């Protein structure tokens, strides 16, 4: 999906609310403010500067602010489910037109408040919720199918390594799907390629992630990667300390697409999620009054401006040309529909 827009070059004062206890009402104009202010809100469960998942959304909202002249606010809410609904209500009552809960864990709270704020569009990342079908047309699942780039990482892992380990955050569908995608990719190369997986039960415990990764390495794993938001930094600590491993940068914002400083010698490829390309388009339509929700929205590697991988040419062992060709072939297969990255349930084989 290639999208081109002519953006308005306006800059307004930005209200950034970073404290978990803050509310949009503290810094944002009320509904019906002069000039028809376009206000957008972001809810995340971890720090917006995590160089990964949360930052992809934050950077996207900064683009909306800069390119569309939006008033932007964000809240870092941790794993406090009770705070999610209150935050959605605060944004709705303050006249925010577009609000994103950046993660599947925000879905239930958005559905709970949606009917009370019909003029607010509530988007949920990593969700296939079809609000139109479910009777809540202003709740839109916005899924970036990360099983697809993880499938590509699986191809690389099986062609360059001997055994892989993945440290996941919580056992929820968007995380489990990436693990499945990785396993399918690896086993498309070698049906017997061993993959060890584990879940931490949270997205914040860096120490636990490092301990889990070290346990995998002790068992012989030589390819290691996380899908655990901020907790995943524990895995990157291992990768930066052990040059015999192979790793991958996950959910990198486009400003860091070629930044491998988190594991400069061992991370051979980055998965880049340019959420801005997707969200700026949606925000443009919402601001213009032309957005009409029809179902949930899905992005994959066929949407080359939104989701892609880059290679680390300075890695200790860069990805060889034959492996890159195999990755290109996999991208073509996924994009054409010939390859289903979620086929079966490979996790049951571990």
Keyword list:
10 helices, 350 residues, six-stranded parallel sheet, globular, Rossmann fold, alpha/beta, six-stranded mixed sheet, disordered N terminus, 2 domains, single chain
Portion in helices: 25-40%
Biggest sheet strand order reads: 2-1-3-4-5-11
CATH topology of the largest domain: Rossmann fold
CATH architecture of the largest domain: 3-Layer(aba) Sandwich
Order of helices and strands: EHEHEHEHEHEHEHEHEEHEEH
Rounded mean pLDDT score: 88
**How many H/I helical runs?**
10
What is the number of E strands?
A: 12
What oligomeric arrangement do these chains adopt? single chain
What's the N-to-C terminus distance?
35 Å
| Low-confidence regions | 1-35
Rounded radius of gyration (Å): 20 Å
Largest sheet: 6 strands, parallel
Percentage beta strand:
15-25%
Q: Which superfamily, in CATH terms, is the homologous superfamily of the largest domain? A: Response regulator
Shape: globular
Query: In total, how many domains does the architecture comprise?
Result: 2
Characterise this structure:
By secondary structure, the protein is an alpha/beta fold. It folds into two domains: 24-144 and 275-299, Response regulator (Rossmann fold); 147-273 and 320-349, 3-Layer(aba) Sandwich (Rossmann fold), CATH 3.40.50. 35% of the residues lie in helices and 18% in strands. It has ten helices and twelve strands. It has helices at 53-68, 81-93, 107-114, 131-134, 147-160, 173-189, 206-218, 233-241, 275-288, 321-336; strands at 39-44, 71-76, 98-101, 121-125, 139-144, 164-168, 195-199, 223-227, 246-252, 267-273, 297-299, 307-311. Strands 2-1-3-4-5-11 form a six-stranded parallel sheet, sandwiched between helices. The chain has a six-stranded mixed sheet with strand order 7-6-8-9-10-12, sandwiched between helices. Helix 4 (131-134) links the parallel strand 4 and strand 5. Helix 2 (81-93) packs parallel to helix 3 (107-114) and helix 5 packs antiparallel against helix 10 (321-336). The two termini are 35 Å apart. Mean pLDDT is 88; it is low at 1-35.
């Amino acid at each position: 999906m290639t999208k081109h827009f002519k953006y308005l070059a306006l800059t307004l004062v930005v209200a950034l609310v970073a404290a978990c206890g803050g509310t949009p009402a503290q810094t944002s104009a009320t509904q019906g403010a002069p000039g028809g202010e376009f206000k957008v809100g972001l809810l995340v469960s971890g720090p917006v500067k995590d160089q990964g998942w949360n930052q992809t959304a934050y950077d996207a909202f900064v683009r909306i602010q800069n390119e569309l002249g939006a008033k932007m606010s964000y809240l870092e809410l941790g794993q406090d489910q009770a705070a999610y609904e209150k935050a959605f209500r605060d944004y709705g009552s303050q006249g925010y037109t577009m609000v994103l809960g950046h993660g599947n864990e925000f879905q239930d709270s958005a559905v709970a408040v949606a009917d009370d704020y019909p003029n607010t569009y509530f988007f949920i990342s990593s969700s296939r919720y079809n609000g139109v079908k479910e009777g809540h047309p202003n709740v839109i699942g916005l899924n970036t199918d990360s099983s697809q780039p993880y499938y590509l990482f699986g191809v690389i892992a099986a062609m360059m390594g001997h055994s892989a380990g993945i440290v996941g955050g919580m056992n929820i569908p968007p995380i489990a799907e990436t693990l499945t995608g990785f396993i399918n990719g690896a086993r498309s190369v070698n049906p017997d390629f061993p993959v060890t997986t584990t879940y931490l039960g949270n997205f914040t415990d860096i120490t636990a992630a490092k301990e889990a990764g070290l346990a995998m390495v002790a068992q012989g794993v030589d390819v290691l990667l996380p899908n655990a938001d901020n907790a995943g930094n524990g895995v990157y600590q291992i990768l930066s300390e052990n040059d015999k491993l192979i790793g991958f940068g996950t959910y990198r914002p486009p400003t860091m697409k070629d930044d491998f400083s988190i594991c400069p010698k061992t991370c051979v490829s980055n998965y880049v999620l340019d959420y801005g390309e997707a969200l700026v388009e949606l925000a443009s339509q919402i601001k213009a009054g032309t957005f009409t929700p029809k179902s949930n929205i899905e992005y994959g590697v066929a949407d080359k401006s939104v989701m892609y991988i880059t290679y680390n040419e300075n890695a200790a062992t860069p990805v060889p040309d034959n492996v890159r060709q195999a990755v290109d072939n996999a991208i073509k297969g996924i994009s054409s529909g010939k390859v289903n990255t979620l086929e079966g349930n490979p996790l049951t084989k571990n």
